[in-house]
Design brief:
The protein has a 5-stranded mixed sheet with strand order 3-2-1-5-8, with no helix packed on it. Strands 4-10-9 form a 3-stranded mixed sheet. With about 220 residues, the protein is α+β, with helices and mostly antiparallel strands. It contains 4 helices and 10 strands. The longest helix has about 35 residues. The chain has 2 domains: about 70 residues; about 130 residues, Immunoglobulin-like, CATH 2.60.40. About 35% of the residues lie in helices and about 25% in strands.
Length: about 220
């Protein structure tokens, strides 16, 4: 869960979100270094007009600040391309879960187990831990199992988003998007619809609970 005054990404819960966090931190470090260098250089040049004239007429300096940004961009692109490859990596899923967006709640279908249920936001009085973030029926996923998530919508565009799991998938009417998830940490993870979908857009939270395989099987049998 995010907390007040949080300045970084949420703690990652799988390998995709780990790589996303590393890539984000790397690019931020480069951007801060560039911004600091340019700020110091600008202050120095404003105070030294003679030096300023010498730099603007310096061909070697022109070549340097043309080539250097290219090297920096290549350095920043390398982890980004690696992250895209990891996100698009395809593995044979062991099970499938379908998430369907509505105005304004989610429906989860487990076609392998013939199970379907709706997930509504709980009333404010019923939420003990996080305001406007808990639901009456959580989406349950087994721990360390390749799971295919299918996402669609019945009315307008929604977005199924779990920051800690590195997931942001559009739910579009008439189209099914998919991705493979491999949760590597057990726990309860919170998210919200990230696409403005109408009056109650802010009141359709997402809660995913990662449990052991045995607990998942018992949950399927009981419910």
């Amino acid at each position: 869960m995010p907390t007040w005054n949080m300045m970084i990404m949420q703690d990652p819960a799988n390998m995709v979100s780990v790589y996303m966090s590393i890539t984000h931190n790397t690019i931020m470090e480069v951007m801060i270094a560039i911004a600091t260098f340019i700020s110091v250089l600008m202050i120095f040049l404003l105070k030294n007009k003679a030096t300023n004239r010498m730099i603007t007429q310096n061909n070697k300096m022109e070549i340097l600040w043309t080539i250097l940004p290219m090297i920096i961009l290549i350095y920043m692109a390398s982890p980004s391309l690696q992250l895209l490859y990891i996100m698009e990596e395809s593995n044979t899923p062991s099970m499938t879960i379908k998430s369907v967006g509505h105005q304004w709640y989610w429906t989860y279908e487990y076609p392998d187990f013939m199970k379907t249920f709706d997930s509504y936001m709980m009333t404010e009085k019923s939420q003990k831990k996080f305001r406007l973030m808990d639901v009456d029926n959580r989406m349950i996923m087994p721990f360390k199992i390749f799971t295919r998530i299918l996402c669609s919508s019945t009315d307008v565009i929604h977005s199924w988003t779990i920051p800690s799991l590195g997931v942001k998938m559009d739910a579009m009417p008439g189209r099914v998007n998919q991705m493979i998830m491999y949760p590597s940490m057990m726990g309860v993870y919170y998210g919200q619809c990230s696409e403005i979908c109408g009056m109650n857009h802010s009141f359709m939270p997402i809660v995913v609970e990662i449990v052991k395989t045995k607990m998942f099987i018992n949950w399927i049998k009981v419910s």
